[in-house]
């Protein structure tokens, strides 16, 4: 068992808000897919932003491979598909890829890039500007950018949003492939079928707190997850 990510009592409180993320602790192993469930506003995206260092935490510690996380931690070792598309909308898919490859100093061939685009039916759109793409196409390309450097830790915030069933299957296959290669993946979704199918372990976040941890061996069913999600089960 190789622990890649270790979060210890991390927390965050915002000014002018009653919301607070309180003392979240968990570990993520190499090759593990961890699901996050909880209602809107429970704190899932806040947790992702703290882990990714996009938002400074107020308390707690984060360790990567046993070392405290510093400001340079996520430059090369993490991928983050957030709910915000942060690349250049006036540039084409190819131009955005060229930019990311140059900035990250990636050794990746054109054949590998084209194969990746083909997996998501984006090869024919390579010369289209991002602002000409549909929501689903943008989501797929955002996923490609987040895995282009083969991160060891991957955060996926609602990755299936806007995708059709065929596109979802392609993304699921890649998520499983990356896990098989040793990536630790944290995945949030309101689609409990996908959480149930993909994840080895599930973190239930409720009102800013880690209310329950469910592993594959717990025998929980999709119905149990639905009850948790709808706050119908006492925790």
From TrEMBL:
Alphabetical list of PROSITE patterns matching this protein: ABC_TRANSPORTER_1, ABC_TRANSPORTER_2
Keyword terms: ATP-binding, Nucleotide-binding, Transport
A Pfam family reported for this protein in Swiss-Prot or TrEMBL: ABC_tran
Gene Ontology molecular function, alphabetical: ATP binding
InterPro entries xrefs: AAA+_ATPase (IPR003593), ABC_transporter-like_ATP-bd (IPR003439), ABC_transporter-like_CS (IPR017871), ABC_Transporter_VariousFunc (IPR051782), P-loop_NTPase (IPR027417)
The keyword Zinc belongs to this UniProt entry's keyword annotation: no
Domain ABC transporter: 5-232
SMART domains: AAA
Protein name: ABC-2 type transport system ATP-binding protein
Organism: Streptococcus saliviloxodontae
Classification lineage: Bacteria, Bacillati, Bacillota, Bacilli, Lactobacillales
């Amino acid at each position: 068992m190789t622990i890649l990510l270790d979060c210890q009592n991390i927390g965050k409180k915002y000014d002018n808000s009653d919301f607070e993320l309180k003392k979240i602790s968990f570990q993520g192993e190499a090759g593990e897919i961890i699901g996050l469930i909880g209602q809107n506003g429970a704190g899932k995206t806040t947790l992702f932003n703290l882990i990714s260092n996009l938002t400074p935490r107020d308390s707690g510690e984060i360790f990567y491979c046993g070392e405290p996380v510093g400001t340079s931690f996520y430059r090369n070792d993490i991928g983050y598909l957030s709910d915000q598309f942060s690349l250049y909308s006036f540039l084409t898919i190819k131009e955005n890829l060229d930019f990311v490859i140059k900035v990250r100093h990636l050794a990746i061939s054109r054949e590998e890039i084209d194969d990746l685009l083909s997996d998501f039916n984006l090869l024919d759109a390579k010369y289209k500007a991002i602002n000409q793409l549909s929501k689903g196409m943008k989501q797929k390309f955002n996923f490609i950018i987040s895995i282009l450097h083969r991160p060891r830790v991957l955060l996926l915030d609602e990755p299936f949003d806007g995708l059709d069933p065929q596109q979802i299957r392609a993304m699921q296959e890649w998520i499983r492939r990356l896990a098989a290669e040793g990536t630790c993946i944290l995945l949030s979704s309101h689609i409990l079928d996908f959480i149930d199918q993909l994840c080895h372990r599930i973190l239930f976040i409720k009102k800013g707190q880690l209310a329950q941890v469910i592993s594959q061996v717990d025998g929980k069913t999709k119905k149990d997850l639905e009850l948790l999600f709808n706050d119908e089960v006492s925790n």
